[in-house]
Amino acid sequence: MAMVFCLGCAKQLHETAPACPQCGAPQFAVTPPAQSIGGESSWMAVTALILGILCLLSLFDDAEWDADTLLGLGLFASIGLVSGIVSICQKKPGNGMAVAGVVMTTFSLLCFIGLSVN
User: Fold this and answer.
1) Above pLDDT 90, what percent of the chain?
2) Coil, strand, or helix at residue 33?
3) Residue 43 CA, distance from chain mean position
4) 92 touches 44 (CB < 8 A)
5) Phi/psi at 58 (nearest 5 deg)?
6) At what angle do helices 67-89 and 43-58 cross, to 10 degrees?
7) 12 has which bridge partners?
8) Residue 101 belongs to some domain of the structure
9) Does the pLDDT value for residue 100 go beyond 80?
10) All residues at 6 or more sequence positions from 60 whose CB lies less than 8 Å from its CB, including other chains
11) How distant, in Å, are the alpha carbons of 29, 31, 112 from that of 13?
12) E strands within 1-118?
């Protein structure tokens, strides 16, 4: 049975007392509940970023593109754009990646639309 001193009034009390019986000061530091390891994943932001990078890099290809290629790249850009916007709206982790993905996919999608019109 060990005795310790109160953190609030310096009176002696038992070491297992949650609060001082004299002044009522809490004796143990209140810690917030630990967040689970892993928590929410940022797979949507990562998807938006990867698809944005791929679509942006495809713009540097000098080959002639047919309608199927433009449709496929437009589909990739659209999926990246939607996943980035959903990730931002749901406030998921990785907001910076989602914003970068949205910017790159939007730019790429506009370029693909412009190339398909010509």
Assistant:
1) 36
2) coil
3) 8
4) yes
5) -70, -20
6) 150
7) 5
8) yes
9) yes
10) none
11) 16, 22, 74
12) 3-5, 12-14
Residue-number span of the structural domain to which 91 is assigned: 43-117
Contact status, residue 20 vs residue 13, Cβ threshold 8 Å:
yes
C-alpha–C-alpha distance, residues 32 and 7, integer Å = 20
Among 113, 105, 108, residue whose Cα is nearest residue 50: 105
Encoded tokens for 91 = 């406030």
Distance in angstroms between the alpha carbons of the first and the last residue of the chain: 87
Q: Domain tally for the chain?
A: 1
Asked if residue 35 belongs to a domain, the reply is no
What dihedral do alpha carbons 53, 55, 56, 57 form, nearest 10°? 80
Global pTM value: 0.64
- Does 29 reside within a domain? no
